[in-house]
Amino acid sequence: MSTVLAAIRAEWTKLRTTPGPAWLLLITAAVTVGLGAAVCALATCPRAGCDLDAGRLALSGVYLGQVPIAVLAVLAVSGEYSTRLIGTTLTAIPNRPVVLAAKALVLVVPVAAVAASALFACLLIARIVLPDRLPLEGPILRAGAGSVAYLVLIALLGLGVAAVVRDSAASIGTVLGLLYLPPILTQTVADPQLRRLLERAAPMSAGLAIQATGDLRHLPIGPWAGLGVAAAWSVGALLAGTFLLRFRDT
């Protein structure tokens, strides 16, 4: 237990004493709220498509807000490899799975706090801009809470990928590729069944189904099932990262 607490204290000290994490979290909040507000404002124009899902409109900032979170998660691991401090960390705490678990715990708490604050602000802004179309009840609250969970899962995905790849640039490219490349490829697929399969399996396409608040029967995957797909990607990346961190040389 003392080893776990020591690892958590060490990772928390690293997180709060370097300027990068604070800036990335601030950028996350600014991008998420700013983009969500802009989309909601544009949606007041009839040409913007007023029949769109109001929940998705309000929370649309997540599409870009996830980028700085992914970068923050990657740097939590790969930054130590680039500075060669990973050797010092693993010498102080030889239990490598504990080190990665401490990084995950210390990362998840501020990410969840910032995501919850930013998305709550998005819903309040949308409530003002779209007062007749965004009641703060059941489906909307599920979409908001689910979006917070989605951003936490993206942080864990980035952490796991960084533990596997180790290089910062390659890890960031891998995570962003996993998120944004499948939706692009899906648009080029002519077979509707294959396209639906890609939408159900891709982490972002499936995970952001949690934001849907209407016409759920026509979604490629249900909201909670989609969030489960994103969770499977994150857990898989963390398990692979834990295995490689434990058994290969630093």
UniProtKB/TrEMBL annotation:
The keyword Membrane applies. The chain crosses the membrane at residues 22-45, 57-78, 98-126, 147-165, 224-245. This is ABC transporter. Keywords: Membrane, Transmembrane, Transmembrane helix.
